[in-house]
Each structure stands twice: as C-alpha cells, then as structure tokens.
Amino acid sequence: MHKRQVAVWKNGWLQHCIHQPSPNFAPRTDPQNVSVVVLHNISLPPFEYGQGAVQRLFTNQLNNNEDDVFLRSLTSLRVSSHFFIERDGTLTQFVSCEDAAYHAGISRFNGKEGCNDFSIGIELEGCDFEPFTSVQYDQLIELLQAICAVFPIRAVTGHEHIAPGRKSDPGHYFQWEKLCKEYLPVVTNYQ
After folding, report:
1. Annotated catalytic residue: which of 123, 125, 142, 160?
2. Percent of the chain scoring above 70 in pLDDT
3. Are the C-beta atoms of residues 10 and 19 closer than 8 Å to each other?
4. Is 170 a member of any domain?
5. Phi, psi of 136 (to 5 degrees)
6. Which of 59, 78, 90, 156 counts the most CB atoms within 10 A of its CB?
7. Is there a catalytic annotation at residue 86?
C-alpha cells in the first residue's frame, strides 16, 4: 500500500499491495469475529533481510536445495501471516483477512485459545536484536488503520504476549509507543 492511498478491499484482500497467495490457512469459524492484530518479526536466514526466503516459506516454496542449512530445516513448515512488511516498507499479503492464516500457533488472548481464528497476523522483517525501520512503522500504521476501518479490531498485541515463554517477537526493540502516539481506534495491548 502506498502512502496516502485509500484502502480498497476485495474479499479480504487489500488491493494496494503485492499479493502472493499462501496455502497455509483455514476458513475462519466466524469471519465477523476478527478482533485482534498480532505483530511478529521474522528474518530468514536469521539476521538476513531481502533474500525472499520469507516469501518462499509462507508459500511452501522452500526446498531441500536451499543453500542455507537453516532454510532447508524449514521446508516442512506450513505457516504464513496475513501480511509481511519488508525493511523498505514493501507490503505483501499472503492470506485473505477473511481466512485464518497459520501465524500464531498455540496461543491465547484474554483467555481465548487459538488466536489464528480471530486475529490478523502481521510480520515485520526484522529480529529481536535490532530496531525496525521508520518506513516499516509508517507502513504498519497505515496498514493498521486500513484494517481497523474494516474489521472490529479491539487490540493490537505481540506474538510474545499471546504465546509467552514460547515466542519473543516482535521483541524489545519494537516501539509500541509509536503506535500509541498515532490515532488507532483500538486498545494497544503490549503489557
């Protein structure tokens, strides 16, 4: 999505971004019950960016011929977020927001198990050990505003908060206060 562009949706797909459909999703139990956005970080191989490996992972295109041993170990995973924001702000959507992407795994939010069914997952290209870029925050805020205009989002939270002890993303470098300073019609939950 480009800055200042009106968000247009079609069947849960944001129209002003790259579409790279993933098979790693399931129909939602109740598509009208999408109420949480979960933020993640990812870099593949670890601490490397712009290699296209995240896109290959989310679309099941990693294979045993990958140059990197770590990437080869991920070939059997079947995961995807709804959105991925690269370091330069490029936005890609993998799963319709009307479906449940496989991004949260074993998770719980406000006592409710299985966050995939009622959340939208956004991956930021990055890691727990370095700051995200300003263009990523700009793109994230614009994306959250577009999502909140269509879905009844009540909270934005981190993977670390819905799967404590199991996950640590988006990590301590993520600047939650940047989201709090922007107008978002949601309760940002990061405690």
Report:
1. 123
2. 93
3. no
4. yes
5. -65, -45
6. 156
7. no
